[in-house]
Structure formats: structure tokens, C-alpha cells
Amino acid sequence: xxAQPSSAETGMTLVExxxxxxxxLIVCVVAVAVGMVAGFILYPWVFDILLAPYERIATxxxxxxxxxxxxxxxxxxxxxxxxxxxxxxxxxxxxxxxWQIWKFVTPGLYPHERRYAVPFVASALTLxxxxxxxxxxxxxxxxxxxxxxxxDDLVTAFAPGxxxxxxTYMMLAFGIGFEFPIVLIFLQMAGVLETDTLRKGxxxxxxxxxxxxxxxxxxxxPISMLMLSVPMIIFYEIAIVAGSIITRRQxxxxxx
Length: 256
Hints:
By secondary structure, the chain is an all-alpha fold. The chain has one domain (7-255). The protein is 77% helix and 0% strand. Helix 4 runs antiparallel to helix 6 (117-148) and helix 6 packs across helix 7 (160-177). It is flat, with a radius of gyration of 22 Å.
């Protein structure tokens, strides 16, 4: 693959790149702030959605709080609302954040590569939502495993801070994990990574994925780890296929 355009070719100096980065960061911060306001207003609705996985596994036999969260800190309610609003704001601002990331790296790409802006943002956003959705779908089964593995002598009464930290980190971990193919495909497009390297390193990559999933999965339960590692391994294979197509097309254009 050919080298990427230099700063001279893109017409931007280092100072201009830094100014561009500052502008993109400001736009992202403003987008998150607006999203946080919307998240604060929609907090009761978001709270009910996030609480649903716990309510599904909490029964009279294993929960002393009847599926409710137990607040033991007077400030915890305010803290939970602000944190939930912040996470919601980031989720709402994700399209803007992804678009700003793409616009920042665009000057370093060739013109024929810049046309992938909309597919990049759309696919990255879709995969993140799918990953977060899979985490949400998996959480009741993960919670059930975590509750049952301690034995029948334990009763369940989750605190809001710990529970919301678990579910938000789970959704974030799955969402980031689902960005795996986008990163691999982009690195191949940029000439940083060769498709043959991915193909030859398949076995090591699988082991690396399993280790990475074990590290980033907050709950550490086998159900969540399995639900994240299998899609990432499939995404690895998809990235190899996509990289092969990209390499072939670039070779055909170079020969034309």
C-alpha cells in the first residue's frame, strides 16, 4: 500500500493541525453538554430502562428490596442522576464525536478514501449500538449467574452506584469491542496493517481477544465473556475479508 499524504501534501502545518484538533474537541464537548441536558431531562425514563435487567432477576426469594436499589448514601441519588446524564449525553453525542474524529483524520487520507466518511460514521455508530444492546441483553443472565454463584444463603440488595457502574461499563465495553472491525479495516486502508499479517496472526489474535475480553468485561462472568469474545473473533475474520477486497481494488487501480 502507498504511503499517506504528508503535511505538505495536505497543506496543513503542525500548528494548523493542533488548531483543528482544538476545534474538533470543542465541538465534541459542546455536543456532550447538550446531550447531558437531554439526559438529565430523560433521566426517569433512562433509569427505568437500566433498572429492568435487575428487576428481571430479582425475586422475593433472593432480594430483600423487591427489585429496588438500596440507597445508603444521602448524596448517591444526586450522583447517580449526574453520572447517568453524563453517560446519556455521550451516547447522544456519539454521532457528532465519530464525525469529528473522521473529519480530523480526513486531511491525512487520499481523496478516494475520504468518500468513506458516511459509511465509517454510520457503521461505527451502528456497531457501537449493537454492542451496547448485546450487553444489555446479556446482563440479566450475567446477574443471575453472579447472584446464584454465591449460594442460597445470600440475599440481593444492590446499591445504585455499584449497579449503574456495572451496567454502564458493560455497555461501554461491548460497544467499544464492537468497534474492533472498524479499527482493523481503517488500519488496512491507511497502510499501517497488512491483510497477510492479520491472516498469519489469526491464532495469536484469538488468544489476544480472549485476554482482552477478560480484562475489559467488568463482571468477569463467563456468559458476558463468551457473548463478547465470539463476535470479536467473527469481526476479525470479517476484517480480513474486507482487507483482501481493499488490497485487490488498490492493486487494480495501481495497474490501470
